[in-house]
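Handout, page 2. Input:
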Amino acid sequence: MINVKVTEFFAVAVSLFLSTPALTRASTPEQASVVVVGEILSGRQSGNSAVFTLSVVRTLKGDASPGTTIAVNATLQRPDDRDLTGSYGMWFLAKTGAQSVLLPVQTGVFDTAYYPLSKAASPAAITTRSPPATLDDQIALETAAALQSYSTALQFHLLATGILGTADSPVTQDAYQFLHTSPDPELRFIALARYLRNQGDTSALAEIANDVDLTPGLKATFFVVPGVLGRLDSDPSAIGSLGKIATSADPYLQRAAATALMYIHTRDALPFLAQLLGSSDAATREFAMRGLSRFVDNLPIATHENVLSGRASLQQGQAPYRTQQTDRYSLSTRSLAQAPGGEAAFLQFWKSWWATMQPKLAPGQ
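Output:
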């Protein structure tokens, strides 16, 4: 079941996400008084508490010197009983007297409480136009370098979240360029996920479309989905890329592109929406019918502003293609679950409507 208000709220949330320089994290670098790269010499988690001794390798923030040790306490959401010795990565700490408290990167288990780096990876391997000037710059270089040698899906996810959460700067741009030129498509797609935030640049969308056959097997597709879904761009070349991305065998990416096309619903988008009526994914088919309905009802291209104000659901000017029949089968302001007749009747109507109207609605006519 697809709820209209839920999907419109999701589009707003993604739009807001794309306009925000940092991803949401359990704690932010600004909250930490000490940020270091280091290795646990000894320590254990018992229940929800962990105590360990951290050996500092590099200091990104604070007064901890490389080669020194820090006594750290941590409180975790999920209980466990395990040895923590050998854990290596980037740690965010808040000092309380002689003790330091771990600020988790993501809440839950210990393995998500820090950025797991690689001892063999060095941020010095990334060429930058200027030295790192901020903590975000240093985080971007550390995580980009470590992404070259990730070994697990969890490590990849955490490191990607780390670099995608950094603010834009010349140094972070260099870090993304480093990833974008990697022969590993996983790293290249992380850079593309960031580039999608630039709404005036359609090159990232085109690159994803050209490599759409890779997306079902990529872990990085998870990070690309929000940028595709929030790409409410009426530029014909961007719409063409969305149409190609909508052919992805990855159901989440296909739905993201279908949702974007649904909210754009210009003449350029209509052939792709009509094609998606034949998708094997029920959600995608519904998005396609809703997009065609929004075109016929002459609703505006959705933005987070007009969705929040309710204007995204109001007809703008005349609707020359609207009839009693299209009203009966319109899904512009309701979900299929709220409509009588079932999916088959609606699909048959919109397929027939497109077959009849296609010659009149060709882009440019």
